[in-house]
Write a structure and sequence with these properties.
The protein contains 15 helices and twelve strands. By secondary structure, the protein is α+β, with helices and mostly antiparallel strands. It folds into four domains: 87 residues, Ubiquitin-like (UB roll) (Roll); 106 residues, Up-down Bundle (Acyl-CoA Binding Protein), CATH 1.20.80.10; 151 residues, Pleckstrin-homology domain (PH domain)/Phosphotyrosine-binding domain (PTB) (PH-domain like, Roll); 57 residues, no CATH class. One of its GO terms (molecular function) is protein tyrosine phosphatase activity.
Length: 445
């Protein structure tokens, strides 16, 4: 008779799996990363996880976006200081995020990290192809040639044929439709330029691509549809330098720089811009829903915060590169810009509940890391301290005249307090040391 095993069913409750969830992040190179997060994890924790796994040396330029389920599909940015799961459950269509460039720059030299520059280049290429960055046929061909050099390397006539390159998406639909000859003429012009780029490194091609794209219309801009007080349809463009207001039916735009804006105010569906100039009246606009108006207000705060940190970091870098020599650089414009914005923050406090001053940001932006080698170069150089025997002789005035020697090795000084006093004696003149000798001895004993 065979034995029968009676297995008891165990009802175990896995607390770990209940308090954690997995989220998929789409990358700029069409890849994806899955992150396991806690239900209380903030948005910046997910971004930090992705940046570390990709090796992004400058993650402060990036953000996480999702597709909103309110109204028509629209891309929205994750708030980095709020719990991520709660945001997605309330706002997003799914738990799928996308890594994108959120904060754009005006100088490609600010990107020092190679992996960061590569992903920045992928973002701009995507914006060009999707038509968010506008360019003519000549600019499109030039960008396409740099893109081919960056991705394929030097031109190979046997491999990089017209038939092979036609399979790659290099031009936007608007540029193809605007050109009378279509995609064939654009591709031919791009191949001619591509041939002349032989010998150019792929990293240099990415940098040249970015340096051209930063000067094109639509670069680093997010647009939103709204109406003015006269019920005219307009669009608001939020960029790294300020707010652009354009009218759909006429070729008329207004641009308000961040340094010229004293405050942005949101109340329900209304969005208002207050300027620094006393004689200029506030500009007021109306959105279709209060949710969009509040989102635009938060986006203005985050972009203004990044602008302030960008201006201050530029000032520090310029002063560091010039070794604090005022004759080498002119930083008056940068100082004036920063001071104006700081005065605006001090004089324009919160007006009402969701109309806070633009200095308070719900999107924390990580400041760029400062080159430590540059900071060390700015420190004054000190003479090395003497060894232990010489220090004791000098302390008790037992050293012979003219026997003050200095040595590069400071490891022989065993007493911390004595080492501090020795270092002070090396940088203080003999007259001051004689005057301070009694005070030092009284403080020690």
């Amino acid at each position: 008779m065979p034995f029968k095993f009676h297995l008891k069913k165990s009802r175990q409750y896995n607390v770990i799996s209940k308090n954690q969830y997995v989220i998929c992040v789409e990358l700029l190179d069409t890849g994806s990363i899955e992150c396991t997060l806690d239900v209380q994890s903030l948005g910046h924790e997910c971004l930090t996880n992705v940046a570390q796994r990709l090796g992004l040396g400058q993650p402060e330029f990036f953000g996480l976006s999702y597709i909103s389920h309110h109204g028509s599909p629209a891309t929205r940015w994750v708030q980095m200081d709020k719990p991520l799961k709660r945001q997605l459950e309330k706002e997003a269509r799914s738990f799928n995020l996308r890594l994108r460039v959120m904060y754009f720059i005006t100088d490609v030299q600010l990107i020092q990290d190679e992996i960061t520059r590569y992903h920045y280049y992928l973002q701009l290429k995507m914006d060009v192809i999707d038509g968010r960055i506008h360019c003519n046929s000549r600019e499109a061909s030039t960008l396409a040639s740099y893109s081919m050099q960056a991705e394929f390397g030097n031109y190979d006539p046997q491999r990089h044929t017209a038939e092979y390159l036609q399979q790659c998406i290099l031009f936007s639909k608007n540029v193809i439709q605007a050109d009378s000859s279509g995609q064939d003429s654009l591709l031919s012009a791009a191949i001619v330029r591509y041939k002349n780029l032989s010998g150019l490194t792929q990293a240099a091609a990415e940098e040249l691509y970015v340096s051209i794209a930063v000067h094109l219309e639509g670069y680093g801009r997010e647009t939103f549809a709204a109406k003015d007080d006269a019920n005219n349809e307009i669009f608001l463009g939020i960029s790294m330098n300020g707010i652009i207001i354009g009218y759909s039916n006429v070729q008329l735009t207004s641009f308000y720089r961040w340094k010229d804006i004293s405050n942005v105010i949101n109340h329900k569906k209304t969005f208002k811009i207050e300027c620094q100039a006393e004689n200029e009246e506030p500009k007021q606009f109306h959105f279709s829903d209060a949710r969009t108006a509040k989102y635009v207000w938060r986006l203005c705060i985050s972009q203004h915060t990044f602008y302030m940190q960008h201006q201050e970091s530029n000032l520090v870098n310029k002063m560091s590169n010039s070794h604090l020599d005022p004759d080498n650089i002119d930083v008056r414009d940068e100082i004036r810009d920063v001071n104006i914005d700081n005065e605006a923050k001090a004089t324009n406090q919160a007006h009402f509940n969701s109309c806070n001053d633009i200095s308070s940001s719900p999107f924390p932006v990580a400041a760029s890391s400062i080159n430590m080698d540059t900071l060390r170069a700015l420190l004054p150089s000190y003479r090395p301290a003497p060894d232990y025997d010489t220090a004791v002789q000098r302390k008790y005035n037992t050293a012979p005249n003219g026997s003050h020697h200095y040595y590069a090795n400071q490891s022989n000084v065993h007493s911390p307090s004595l080492a501090h006093e020795v270092c002070m004696s090396t940088i203080i003149s003999p007259e001051l040391s004689s005057l301070l000798g009694n005070a030092v001895n009284r403080s020690r004993y």
